[in-house]
Amino acid sequence: MDEFYQKIREQLVTPKGFFQDLRSLTKYLLFESWSILIQFMISGQRLPLKTNSS
């Protein structure tokens, strides 16, 4: 199996949790590849939130 997938599975307790996170991320964000998506999940990166200054 994929090394990055194994790492993310270690962080998440159930496959259901993994697929819920996957569904949420891909609903709103576009990732160039599976590897980038999994690395994003592993690293716990945060997206910068833009605020409306008006």
> What portion of the residues fall into strands of 2 or more residues?
under 5%
Order of helical and strand elements: HHH
Shape annotation = globular
As a whole number of angstroms, the C-alpha radius of gyration is: 13 Å
**Secondary structure category:** mainly alpha
Low-confidence stretches: none
Average pLDDT works out at 78
Would you kindly provide a written description of the structure presented here, covering whatever features stand out?
- The protein has 54 residues and is mainly alpha-helical.
- The protein has one domain (3-41).
- It is built from three helices and no strands.
List keywords for this structure.
3 helices; mainly alpha; 61% helix; single chain
Topology:
Elements: H1 3-11, H2 15-28, H3 34-43
Helix pairs in contact: 1-3
Short description:
The protein is an all-alpha fold. It contains 3 helices and no strands.
